[in-house]
Specification:
single chain, mainly alpha, 2 domains
Length: 239
């Protein structure tokens, strides 16, 4: 049922996407996701929610080909541009993820059913950790980053200063949303540091908006760099 629902959702999304004008299609480089990793959930879901609790050892062993095929796709996946700062975390996570797959394969080949259950549990945990390595800390942060990525990596190098000035008010609105964001329970201990970094990001983004009204190139270049630095400080709160 889960698989059917997911397939229908994908078909629906593809249908919607194909009907959108090209300028409204999402840019893959600004999407904070790795499709090959998300697709691996098709394998993890029945392992963790069906075979594992039922202690269906035959089923757990039978998933090995799908696990190895999915891991091969994940290993070959390319991070989108917006996740370039996550490259080190992604690659170090892959090392551990691959070790987990090897441990699962060893358990499948053996006769120790408890070792197989342990391997399945570790596989689920490692998958979640790999997702967490690239997941934005909050949707408000991701929304801001999508715009900043285009400004810093496309508009600025191409000297599209008018475009930068044009999106600055939207960046302010998104920075304001970050200051009101609520962190997940897992991250709530970092709330104070997050709020401090978010306030500083909002302040420098407002300076960029103010400079954008006169659109002086020298000021824009300097402030985009300042804004980018403030955003990096915000992200480092969660390192």
């Amino acid at each position: 049922m889960y698989r059917v629902t997911r397939i229908l959702l994908i078909v629906l999304l593809l249908g919607i996407g194909s009907s959108l004008p090209a300028e409204h299609m999402p840019d893959p480089e600004t999407e904070s996701t790795v499709p090959e990793l998300i697709e691996f959930h098709e394998v993890i879901y029945p392992i963790w929610h069906t075979a594992f609790p039922a202690k269906d050892f035959a089923a757990l062993r039978g998933f090995l080909p799908a696990i190895e095929a999915g891991m091969a796709r994940i290993n070959a996946a390319k991070l989108p541009g917006i996740l370039r700062d996550k490259k080190q975390a992604w690659e170090s996570g892959l090392v551990e993820f691959n070790k987990t797959i090897a441990a699962y394969k060893t358990a499948v080949a053996g006769t120790d059913d408890q070792a197989l259950l342990d391997a399945a549990e570790l596989l689920h945990m490692r998958f979640e950790m790999q997702v967490r390595a690239i997941r934005p800390v909050a949707r408000e942060v991701d929304a801001y980053h999508k715009v900043l990525y285009v400004v810093f990596h496309k508009y600025l190098p191409e000297k599209k200063f008018a475009e930068i000035c044009g999106v600055a008010p939207d960046m302010v609105a998104k920075a304001e949303a970050i200051t009101k964001a609520t962190l997940s329970r897992r991250l709530e201990a970092k709330t104070a540091a997050f709020q401090d970094a978010a306030a500083k990001l909002l302040a420098v983004t407002r300076l960029l908006e103010a400079a954008g009204k006169s659109c002086l190139e020298k000021d824009i270049v300097a402030l985009v760099g300042t804004v980018h630095g403030a955003y990096q400080v915000l992200e480092k709160v969660f390192d």
